[in-house]
Description:
283 residues; 7 helices; 17 strands
Amino acid sequence: MKIAAIQMVSGTDLPANLAQARALLREAAQAGAELAVLPEYFCLMGLRDADKLAIQEPFGQGPIQQFLSDAARELGLWLVGGTLPLTASPDSPARESANEQQAGRVFNSSLVYSPAGQCQARYDKMHLFRFNNGVERYDESLVLAAGRQPVTFDVASVDGHTWRFGMSVCYDLRFAELYRHYARAGAHVMLVPSAFTHTTGQDHWEVLLRARAIENLAFVVAAAQGGLHDNQRSTWGHAMLVDPWGKLLGVREQGPGVVTADLSWDLMQQYRSRLPALEHRLM
């Protein structure tokens, strides 16, 4: 199954970001990808964290969701829409308190669209990034509400197999228990659309991605933001695909682009048969 991890350098102009995403998705489709993953915040990297509140959409409607639906249908792709801000409400899948909406926070949500343009899955980022090294300071909880539910979805591939995907976003990568949950649920591929900072990415990005692949004997697909943004934030990039043995199948270090790789079902099963670690776990 051919999969594409897309790297972007999103800015403050929503239409320009969507145009960049469409061009890269078209490139992925032309390369033969069945499924493409956009990065976290593909639609907007604002000057301030609160800028995402201005483009929030209720789940099920809005121009960003329409863009994802149209792109999936027109290009014939399974499309994982990185993340976009969805309005927090009492009936949201994560069932956060109505106070989340009153507090002016949104979910950082990853949506999956089928080639028919239908939304098949929604995952709200569960772990919210906080970092302060005296120079850089981030606290996503000021504008984001945390999700509460792991999410998987299945894709029947042209290779004749049904692949199960586990969904996550960026900072989730540091919490191995989430990916172990997906392994127990039968996931073959872990998705990690991200916007890692340059500071943390240069030390931890690759080693964490490879660890999640190795310990769960699963493929990992990590779309990324990679470059200097309008807000002067620098993201690490290095969008990559990793096989279940921890080997890199493809990497793009910086700048917009598409990384593709063929995920081999047979190779995954060989790894799992030779080293049946998933059968040996005690909990």
